[in-house]
Amino acid sequence: MKIIVTGGAGFIGGNFVHYMVNKYPEDMIINLDLLTYAGNLETLKPVENAPNYKFVKGDIADRAFIFKLFEEEKPDVVINFAAESHVDRSITDPESFVRTNVMGTTTLLDACRTYGIKRYHQVSTDEVYGDLPLDRPDLFFTEETPLHTSSPYSSSKASADLFVLAYHRTYGLPVTVSRCSNNYGPYHFPEKLIPLIISRALNDEELPVYGKGENVRDWLYVTDHCKAIDLVVRKGKVGEVYNIGGHNERTNLEVVKTILKALNKPESLIKFVTDRPGHDRRYAIDPTKIETELGWKPEYTFDTGIVKTIEWYLNNKEWWEHIISGEYTKYFENMYGERL
Ligand SMILES: NC(=O)c1ccc[n+]([C@@H]2O[C@H](COP(=O)([O-])OP(=O)(O)OC[C@H]3O[C@@H](n4cnc5c(N)ncnc54)[C@H](O)[C@@H]3O)[C@@H](O)[C@H]2O)c1
């Protein structure tokens, strides 16, 4: 099989490419990524010379480029991770989220229709369901929960999901959608909570925490997400949505304190800052459907996954220090510049 993975130089896409290249040597994995600020080819170093891996730089919203790529490569499967993914950035610049997350998705869908495809999979988020109150721990998001978005980011992701499902209903395109809770693990860009706290705490810098740190997120170790997507693509029913989550709810403050304890750093580093506008209170996934229909179960709890993650950041300082210094942006030029 030839599989196009979009956004494979990002956090989850990068972990997914590693997983697929190693697990399926008989498949060809094409990593299509625009290398925005969030794309980092240093993440792909361990697989960049594998015979079943290829990198292509390009924009999923560039119709001419995407159609040419599909014409040349004739992929069997497309898995779309590419997105603008940071809520804070969506508040300052909503339009780039519409362009990549909505128009990029419809461009890929049109190419899939034109060139025929065995499966299109959309990687989505639990944020499309909005948030849950903090005082109702009995409530969870199921696949039937109505879409009720809060931020420009989640609105763009919800729009994309609706287009994906409409292309199934209208054109019979074989699609699946997965909606996952917050991920953490190796290769996570240090603007997001967990790597931000680890990298700053290691440098004894102040740790910004929104509001009182009471917001609750449902954390999933990234390889558990990758395995779930692989399962949905291979065994999931077309036209269906699958929620992915491991019942690992923690307040942001709990997460920060866990990291500080593991690193033996003082809680005095914590600095509460003005809350994000429209900040979602609680996310919590009900994963019953993927567990019962497809037999998925996460391998890691938050307690085991966070230890593994902290170890990874301690052993891979160069990777995140290059991001903080901006060095990573030169990798494409160094690696591919002469070949272009
Ligand atoms: N991070 C999470 O906790 C989480 C949870 C659930 C779902 N998701 C979804 O998973 C996907 C991946 O998230 P992530 O955290 O790895 O994101 P990320 O920001 O780390 O990576 C996004 C990647 O997409 C690429 N990209 C951006 N615009 C592009 C374009 N126009 N064309 C081609 N490539 C482009 C970037 O260069 C980057 O490599 C997203 O769709 C996100 O909505 C993320």
From TrEMBL:
Entry EC no(s): 4.2.1.46
One Pfam family, short name: GDP_Man_Dehyd
Keyword annotations: Lyase, NAD
Keyword Aminoacyl-tRNA synthetase found: no
InterPro entries: dTDP_Gluc_deHydtase, NAD(P)-bd_dom, NAD(P)-bd_dom_sf
Keyword match Nucleotide-binding: no
Any one Gene Ontology BP term: nucleotide-sugar metabolic process
Domain NAD(P)-binding, chain residue ranges per copy: 4-308
Gene Ontology terms, MF aspect: dTDP-glucose 4,6-dehydratase activity
Cofactor: NAD(+)
Reaction it catalyzes: dTDP-alpha-D-glucose = dTDP-4-dehydro-6-deoxy-alpha-D-glucose + H2O
Entry superkingdom: Bacteria
Family: Belongs to the NAD(P)-dependent epimerase/dehydratase family. dTDP-glucose dehydratase subfamily.
Annotated protein name in UniProt: dTDP-glucose 4,6-dehydratase
